[in-house]
Design goal:
13 strands; alpha/beta; Nucleotide-diphossugar_trans; 475 residues; glycosyltransferase activity; 2 domains; transmembrane; Spore Coat Polysaccharide Biosynthesis Protein SpsA, Chain A; glycosyltransferase; three-stranded mixed sheet; transmembrane helix; 14 helices
Length: 475
């Protein structure tokens, strides 16, 4: 018994030193990242005030954009989403909806709502996607193209869309996404400023739950009344207004949300399009772009623009959110393992030597260590080894610092574009920042472990995402 107690004491002490040291380093990195994010946000706010997108609308130099929308069983939101995309302010636009073998009425909704007719033309042979059954063009909106194909997954659907569009840029958009009308005018700015080097840009994703949407436009911004979607509002604010802005400051952006990203069509085709054997195609495609362009010694930029906004419906049920987050974690581990040669490799510049290693430490190892900590602490208490000072340091470095980062996201929102403008909404956001780190954060750490076990077991299922549909003015 004495030997067991001694072994447990040694393990607890070693784990405590490792965990505290790791989180101290991660938090220093986050502080630096958030400081950079403030500088980047300040510059973007100034630029948006002096250079509004509607002034540029008359420019004859806007490159054409194909909005590619993969859709699988999206009948609850597909009509509203497509209407939103057709209403976008942009000079040359094509909307390509890819029905990826839906088993519900997604295709019928599109046919009925937009008066689709079959296009009498052969599909190009070289499209790297599952069999395409039919291609439709809207008789009401000439810019709307609908592709009906065998189910092959989101990556497969994106490939079908980006190979069928003839536009020089394509915007990958989730079918449950509502885009602000001027969003593309802002998102395309990096391609106007650096036409020869810009390869990708991403915008902000916000939570649409409880907001009122009419004719594809968010008319009234509201915070969800239920706790789970509200907590995700907080997550999204911190991720976009802090993490990605900071990475953009050092040209180290490695993730553009699959719900709203703009890419050079020819460059993505050059690397073979989206991989079919990944479940987080948005993370993988950006890392592959970095890797490919660095290996070919090409000058390039991947940008994040905080002003363009897209709105998405987030899960309101814990089991659905659990499936989503486990999939995200599995995909993150898979992408890191696939591109492990980039880690600490100077050939890949700042992305390989700093950004990816920090991402692995913070988002992968850090979450797993934190989850393990919630198991070790009760064991240490049971064996009478729990040190009060260590317990307080661990809580401050995880939960306490997490609340600070969440409130930082609220500050960035209020200081910049301020979509949540009432004092009551700000107070609720601050409260959600506490809830996110007390209870939800701990749950997310255990979900990371479940995601890791699923990855090790070879689980590749996507998991169904249940949609309630957007709130309209008629509700």
């Amino acid at each position: 018994m004495h030997t067991l107690a001694h072994l447990v004491a040694t393990v607890v002490f070693a784990f405590g030193v490792f965990a505290v040291s790791l989180y101290a380093l991660i938090n220093v990195g986050y502080l630096l990242l958030h400081a950079l994010a403030l500088l980047e946000l300040r510059d973007n706010v100034r630029e948006s005030r002096w250079d509004p997108p509607f002034r540029q609308f008359a420019s004859p130099f806007y490159p054409g954009i194909g909005v590619v929308v993969p859709a699988y069983n999206e009948e609850a939101t597909i009509a509203e989403s497509v209407q939103s995309m057709l209403s976008l302010n942009y000079p040359e636009l094509e909307v390509v909806v890819v029905n990826d073998g839906s088993t519900d009425r997604t295709l019928e909704q599109l046919i009925d709502t937009f008066d689709l007719e079959s296009v009498d033309a052969e599909v190009p042979f070289e499209v790297p996607a599952e069999e395409i059954h039919d291609v439709y063009r809207s008789t009401t909106y000439e810019e709307l193209l609908v592709v009906d194909k065998e189910n092959g997954g989101k990556s497969d659907a994106l490939n079908a869309g980006l190979w069928l569009t003839e536009m020089p840029l394509f915007c990958a958009v989730d079918a449950d996404t509502i885009i602000d009308r001027d969003a593309l005018l802002s998102l395309v700015r990096p391609f106007l400023n650096e036409p020869t080097t810009a390869v990708a840009s991403g915008g902000v994703i916000r939570v649409a739950n409880a907001s009122t949407i009419e004719d594809g436009v968010v008319k009234e911004t509201a915070l969800p009344k239920t706790g789970l979607p509200g907590i995700q509002v907080m997550e999204y604010l911190r991720a976009f207004y802090s993490g990605r802005l900071g990475l953009n400051r050092v040209n180290g952006l490695i993730l553009i949300s699959g719900a709203f990203g703009l890419f050079r069509t020819d460059v993505v085709q050059e690397i073979g399009g989206y991989r079919h054997d990944t479940i987080t195609e948005d993370f993988d495609i950006v890392v592959r772009l970095h890797r490919y362009l660095k290996e070919h010694d090409r000058t390039y930029t991947v940008d994040f623009v905080p002003e363009p906004v897209a709105w998405t419906e987030v899960p309101s049920k814990l089991r659905v959110l659990s499936r989503q987050r486990r999939r995200w974690f599995r995909g993150m581990v898979e992408t890191i393992v696939t591109h492990r040669r980039m880690l600490f490799n100077r050939r890949y510049g700042r992305v390989g030597t700093v950004i990816l290693p920090f991402f692995v430490a913070a988002e992968t190892v850090g979450r797993l260590v934190e989850g393990l900590g919630y198991v070790v602490l009760p064991l240490a208490w049971y064996f009478g080894l729990l040190n009060v000072e260590f317990f307080l340091v661990f809580v401050l470095l995880t939960t306490g610092f997490g609340i600070f980062l969440s409130w930082f996201g609220v500050f960035s929102e209020v200081w910049s574009f301020n979509r949540y403008d009432s004092p009551w909404q700000i107070l609720r956001l601050l409260w959600y920042g506490v809830l996110e780190n007390v209870g939800y954060r701990q749950w997310r750490a255990f979900i990371a472990w479940r995601g890791l076990f699923e990855y090790l077991r070879g689980v590749e299922t996507w998991g169904a995402m249940e949609r309630a549909g957007f709130t309209t003015g008629d509700d």
